[in-house]
Amino acid sequence: MPNERHAVVTGSSSGIGRAIAQALLEDGWLVSGLDLGPATLDHLHFHALRVDLADGAATDAALQHLAVAQAFVHAAGVLRVGSLGSLQPADGELMWRLHVDAAERIGNRLLPAMVAAGHGRVVLIGSRVAQGKAGRSQYAATKAALAGLSRSWAAEVVAHGVTVNVVSPAATQTAMTDDPARQAAAPVLPPIGRLIRPDEIAALVGFLLSPAAAAITGQDLQICGGASLPR
Prior knowledge:
By secondary structure, the chain is α/β, with parallel strands linked by helices. Helices cover 35% and strands 16% of the residues. It contains five helices and seven strands; from the N terminus they run βαββαβαβαβαβ. The protein has helices at residues 15-26, 56-63, 89-117, 137-157, 198-208, and strands at residues 6-10, 30-35, 46-50, 71-74, 120-125, 162-169, 220-223. The longest helix is centred in the middle third of the chain and has 29 residues, at 89-117. It is globular.
């Protein structure tokens, strides 16, 4: 029966998160979208919940309204750039709260129920920048933290039918690419000669949420357009 599967997707109003939510809806999932902004998806089986995920108390309150989920995809994100000497602590704090703390809070609520049910899927959207890039130290630190977080969770739940993975794209064609906050740091095209498309990321996430991916856990899968190839 359709819609027996419930996925919680953060950042579902734009970019990668929206593409993931749309793909899951088309595949018959019931999707709850957690976003700061208004919903941009209009679908019978999409439920929008507006919340500032950088606000821990607000996130905890919003989680009280979520039903048990079989999947959790954390795609909400923001990018602030800065070089040594000009780093802004508020930027680093914002990215940590949104990328890492929100994932912790949501996962802490949803994963125990997945373990109890003997099935579940978690995908955290990371970044190729997690490996380090000049001018991106604060952003890289938060995305690198997701890799350690996911492997630790995966180790805890691997025997209970729950998988936890990271999907790390190279530069992707989203609104973040056009953010005025990064005008002085344009994205670098990967070797394929174009930016990664959100629907390409959504396709991989959809596979990781499927029964066919039951043996894949604790991994950081890159959609890099050849950026990780030896030069």
